[in-house]
Amino acid sequence: MGLVNNELRSKAWAILLKSDIKTGLKQNTSKHSDEGQIDLDINRSLNSYPKGLMKPSKDALRTQLATLIKKVLRAQPKLCYFQGYHDIAACFLLVMGPTRAVRALYNISLFYIRDAMQSKLEPVMQQLDLIFTLIRLTDEQLYRFLEECEVPPFYALSWVLTWGTHDVKELELSARIVEFILASHPCMILYVAAALTLHFRDEILSLEPDYAMVHTSLSKLFTKVTLSQTHPLEVTDSLDVESLLEKTAVLFQSYPLLKLRQASKVPWLHPNSCINLYDIWFLNVKAEDLPVSNAHIQGLMEQGDLNQLIQKPTIWKQLLNLKLPIFMDTWTLCIGVVVILGLSWKYHTANLFS
User: Fold this and answer.
1) pTM of the prediction?
2) Which CA distances in Å does 343 have to 1, 4, 173, 180, 288?
3) Backbone angles phi, psi at 169, to 5 degrees
């Protein structure tokens, strides 16, 4: 279900990301250091969707995609490109169009996936450990099997980096997962990954306890996610996306973020992680106050202690004291409820925002 079409999605995503403002990004003509890799990735992008594009149309779309990514990274040169970023960017381009997507991709880069856009991937690697914590808390037998095979959670790296957009082959499917995360919390992709792994636990446990075999099988699980629900009598090894998101919501209700971090070996992650700062920073900043300054972003990207940053007379104090006007909170909540209407009514959707 979710948001029925791209016109509605475009409006809703802009509200959720606080990107629906008239002022554009500050233009920067200086090339970003990663533009060489960006061009290489763009040249082999957009092969799964849109379907049936002729080469001239695909080339034009690739040019728009490259322009979109470079605008965002040139506006914040401290952000680093990672392979797979173009998959998320393509989803936003195709749903929102080349103009609206710029500010939306900029905000998602700063406030949702910034951990993956540092010079090193350690913050993301810490997040992957939370997936195994969820598996351990939910299915001890599966957890022990994965430990016996010495399989780390790296199989889910592309899922977490790209919110599944790299692994699925339909735009509608990518968009459904993206909007679910936008309407909840940056950490929700970790719960999606855990729910997907847990769903296929019988298939995984039937494998030989061999690292290569198990890792390969796990890494392909996201390709089993489909849009439509199969007939109850039909034997299939797929999982429809609405069932996946419902399982994810249940998992989040059972083990909310604070409880999960307390049970994990890495309870606090990187001090400036998006997961740590989302509630106290992004949710408390007005749309018109974005984008924040380059100096502030540089502070976020440094390996410093958050408390020290807050104590300094910088934009931090202003940001952490800002409150959204009531109408903005109401709109955000309403859009979030619309996004997750596909979930079972028995699971109260308000818990996704607690």
Assistant:
1) 0.81
2) 9, 15, 15, 10, 32
3) -115, 10
Going by the DSSP 8-state scheme, the letter that residue 292 receives in this structure is P
User: Cα(9)–Cα(12) distance, rounded to whole angstroms?
Assistant: 5
The residues with which 225 forms a beta bridge, in sequence order, are: 239
State phi, psi for 114 to the nearest 5 degrees.
Answer: -60, -30
Q: How far is CA 235 from CA 81, 85, 204, 242, 246, in A?
A: 41, 35, 17, 18, 21
> For 97-169, where are the E strands, in sequence order?
none
Tokens of residue 316, six digits: 């931090």
Give the residue ranges of DSSP H helices in 183-314.
Answer: 188-199, 201-205, 211-219, 241-254, 257-263, 274-277, 294-301, 306-311
For the stretch 295-341, pLDDT in tens is: 555 555 554 443 333 333 333 333 333 333 333 344 444 445 444 44
Task: Tell me the two tokens of residue 125.
Answer: 């690697």
Q: Which residues contact 85 (CB under 8 A, 6 or more apart)?
A: 69, 113, 116, 117, 161, 162
